[in-house]
Amino acid sequence: MAAYGLYTHIQSNKRRSVALLIGLFFLIYVLVFAGALVAEVLILGDAPLDYLVRAAAYDFVKALPFATAGTIIWIAIAYKFHQSMIDAVTGASEVSRAEEPRLYNLLENLCISRGITMPKLRIADDDALNAFATGLNEKQYSITVTRGLINSLKDAEIEAVLGHELTHIRNGDVRMLVIAVVIAGVISFFGELIFRIFFQGSWGGRSRSSGEKKGGAGLAIVIAVVLIAVAWLLSIVIRFALSRQREFLADAGSVELTKNPDAMISALRKIENRGELHAANSAVMEMCIDNPREGFADIFATHPPVDKRVEALVTFAGGHDPGLLALSAPDDGGQVVNDPPAGGPWGGGAEPADKPFLPGQPPVDPGGGPWGPRQR
User: Fold this and answer.
1) Radius of gyration over every alpha carbon of the chain, rounded to an integer in angstroms
2) What pLDDT digit, counting tens, does each position of 84-117 carry?
3) Are the CB atoms for 264 and 255 separated by under 8 Å?
4) Would you call 274 helix, strand, or coil by DSSP?
5) What pLDDT, on a 0 to 100 scale, did the predictor assign at position 8?
6) Rounded to whole angstroms, what are the CA distances from 314 to 303, 318, 343, 357?
């Protein structure tokens, strides 16, 4: 079966998925030890730090089988029911060719052109402009498109979005992201559980003998809190970093599938800041083609800015950036009529170059056009 996008990315994603699974168990075990340390403080009170650490290590060894079993059960639940849970949040439902012939045919043609097993097709009745792929294997893979996106984009633009999501599936991004979301869920669950145990427990516990040195409880709590915070932050940073990188690669894969970089660019410009699924949680938004929700720092942004993605498509795929695009109502035939931006169809009052730019061909004549020097 042919690969597309960045060819070596498929094998790279498989290695990353294995690393994520290893990281999942490692971070959970870090949290289990932190929880054992908190529990010993609650039980023993202000005992020496070395005694608390030894007691926590003993508890950690006893808890390992239960933590491992609980994590495996969590993953199994996500594997079996994650699509049902996502559908419940987004209100999406599976559609057939008879129900959505336009969308179904676009997806089918893309799959046939590359010999790709066609994923299930779902539509979310939401006015937002967005799409995402889900699933962990060929039987589960599914692409969900919002009603707002179908009504607002032209066929070529919808095809580009579908190609983007197909690239996520083919490159293993979808499976990897589901695993990453499971990591975050497990970390959040254990972290919250530990804090509840600590804040709802009674501080003090039983004290050691009067001749034994005390004063380790406060430092033990600090160590536990630091371990929890580091595990939580690592799970988020890894998940977000992987999300950002995969979007560039999926954009490139879409262009390789459709041979139409301008369609991918115009789709991104229309989707930009119009993709908020208000009923969806952050985990679902991370799967979308664009996530308008931003973190408090750039490292916590799940998607690269649309400007950066468009810039990459212009630079490496030879596409043209029309700038921000307004949406128009669909005509009677269900096709979208897009009014050209002010100043002509190319935006900014500038006409296109006499010849289209070719990838890798440097412009030679300074002085014109919204994409830089004009090619003569």
Assistant:
1) 26
2) 989 998 999 999 999 999 999 999 999 998 898 9
3) yes
4) coil
5) 63
6) 18, 5, 21, 9
Ranges of beta strands (E only) in the chain are: 92-94, 120-124, 131-134, 142-146
As a whole number of angstroms, the distance between CA 212 and CA 9 comes to 58
CA dihedral 5, 8, 9, 12 (to 10 degrees): 170
Q: What is the largest CA-CA distance in the chain?
A: 90
Q: Which of 89, 283, 116 is nearest to 187 (CA)?
A: 283
Q: d(Cα 328, Cα 315) in Å, to the nearest integer? A: 28
Instruction: Tell me how far CA of residue 367 lies from CA of 187, 217, 342, 348, 373, in angstroms.
Output: 54, 70, 20, 14, 5
179 exposed, middle or buried (CB, 10 Å; 0-12, 13-18, 19+)? buried
Residues of the chain with confidence (pLDDT) below 50: 1-5, 203-204, 206-212, 296-299, 331-376
**pTM for the model:** 0.74
Structure token digits, residue 192: 């919250």
* Under 8 Å between Cβ of 351 and 333: no
Q: Which two tokens stand for residue 360?
A: 């890798």
What residue segments make up the domains of the chain, in order of their start?
9-90+173-259
| Cα 19 from Cα 22, distance rounded (Å) | 5
Residues 6+ apart with CB under 8 A from 215: 46, 48, 49
91 within 8 A of 279, measured Cβ to Cβ:
yes
The question of whether 165 is a catalytic residue gets the answer yes
Residue 79 burial (10 A CB sphere; 0-12, 13-18, 19+): middle
Catalytic residue selected from 165, 247, 272, 286: 165
Question: Token pair of 221, please?
Answer: 């709590």
What is the spatial distance between Cα 116 and Cα 170, in angstroms, rounded to a whole number? Answer: 8
- Is the separation of the CB atoms in 350 and 305 below 8 Å? no
- Between CA 224 and CA 228 the distance in angstroms is 6
